[in-house]
Amino acid sequence: MARSRQARIGVDIGGTFTDLVLIEDGGRVLHGKVASTPRAPEEAVLEGISTLVERAGLAVADIAEIVHGTTVGSNTLLQKVGARTGLITTKGFRDVLEIGRLRTPHMFDLQWEKPVPLVRRRHRLEVSERIAADGSVLVPLDEEELVAAAQALLGEGIESLALCFINSYRNPVHEKRAETLLRERFPALGITTSVSVLPEAKEYERTSTTVVNAYVRPVLEAYLARLESGIASLGIDAPLLVGNSNGALASSDTARSKPVFFISSGRAAGAVGGSRLGTALDLDNLVIFDMGGTTASASLVRDGELSRVSEYEFRAGISTPSRFIKAGGYMMSVPTVDVAEVGSGAGSIAHLDSAGLVKVGPVSAGADPGPVCYGLGGTRPTVTDANLVLGYLPQALAGGSRTLSVEAAGKAIRDELGAPLGLDEVTAAFGVREVVNANMARAIRAVTVERGVDPRDFTLVAIGGSGPVHAAAIAELLSMKSLLIPASPGVFTAMGMLAGDVERYYIAPFAMLLEDVDTAALAETTARLREQARKTLSEEDIADDDMELVSEVDLRFRGQEMSLPVRFSEPFDMAKVRDDFLEQYRAIYNYSSSDSIEVVSVRMTGRGLRPGKLDFRKLQDAVADDLAPMSQRQVFFGRERGWLETPVYDRLRIPRVIEGPAILEGSDSTVVVPPGATATRDDFMNLHLKLA
Known about the structure:
The chain is 31% helix and 27% strand. The chain contains 16 helices and 37 strands. Strands 13, 14, 15, 20, 25, 26, 33, 36 and 37 form a 9-stranded mixed beta sheet that branches. A 6-stranded mixed beta sheet has the order 3-2-1-4-11-12, sandwiched between helices. α1 crosses α7 (203-233) and α11 (406-421) crosses α12. The protein is globular.
């Protein structure tokens, strides 16, 4: 009798480390970290999978599934290393990407520079065709002009093409004909049509989303092909699922064809995992704080619901989810977890600006060469170097695979920061820590205070390799009293992916006033979208009983630009939908209008509930009998407290209650319990901190 498969693996690629988690059906958990390989990210993934399977004592046939979060899409945008992309559009709409929304993110910032379009103007060509706003054909597609435009772009070395015609969301006939014709004539050319990615009104948003998809697609396709080939070479015959920006999962085939849905793959999974952990522990109001090697992010769970949005802009440096700040990056109208992110991570480089002030990030030392203390060639001090000098970190990371040098870290901080400022290395290191904590507190304020939410009423969930090192200090800055540290915070994003469901998204235009909604037409549109969702989920081996279909309408006040999605059930209840919209609008903008409400479009989310997904209430983590500290060391807790003799515990060997100060060391992360704080361990090895 064949041995049944019994294990699933989650993988998250970070800027410094690649995290892996293996969970068996019985609840046993193993995790590991390997140094990321930025030039070929799949190499670290394959090394980590091979090592983890061997450590677990499993055969490759026991692996039932691999779920993966990738930074390939975001790094491609950040580094501008995507495919040479062209755009063919309707005559008169060549400069949509340049015009954008006719807004700037900050009204009085005279130094702001508009992001350079991903498609150069010479590679944006027009053809004769025109669809009216009602879907009727005004000007037929000039096929000869289309072929000539594509031929000209190929002559310029274009590898990937975006097709976006005006009003194609109402009638896609021209876009579909153009795609068919160009695929026949130029089979090697990658083509992305706007109706296949975003069949929705708003010409700029649709064009930008389509272009991002075309720009990233060849890079992600090549990466996933290499990864799947490598997994097969290990002898593993298991499906590969990829995390999307909304915190859900989809097949690798979907990720290859629609990478724009996967740009924020990793950071979303951590937020979803934190939300599900909160549900398991009956905690409804959370701020999920994730600090890795390159960035730190914050997201909000309010009344048990994770905050999500239907569009976002990718930006370098600092990215906030404010609905009032637009035009700062590359627009993508795709479902995503609402995350505020700053370029401050453990690998962020500390430096002096032209005024002699200490700045941290957004440039990171990454995995290559890494912080100075790694001894791999790094010469500029980072947050990790500062934490090591202050005594917060052990002499080795990632289960002993990375030895750290206090002497090298101290010298770099002294030479680069201390000497120019007339400070000793300890004071300079603590200054770095204070600056980076202030940066990360900004991200948390963006999802709380700037939304009218008091963070003091929420529990701070600290995840990521460096989150628990900084969480207590950041909570003190925000006057937050409660913290939650998961059992394996350093690999929690990989665990969050294992807790996700499969999701696919569909949208159809449906423009009319809410009071005039044709319920029969709405039911027909909803049924069509529902059938598409069922068909796609069936192709991904989701059983009918495991399908969950969620219907929404996009609503706005008449004449407004932005809309909000509101759930509805059938039969359509106009009064309830109106009340839900007004309540949601007031929660965001603190007022509502008496104007008429417009329906913009209908959305359908097809969710495939995965029976084998991670359940935080069923994890097994044995507590050892020896609960005494492993050692003692001096740790610097600020100018008032100074150096304190601090007990150091093995994270898996801790008593039920620990009084601070204390340091808890694990193979994936280090937890700092400051003086006056109390840490309580629950039955699942999560830590609940209460600050003085």
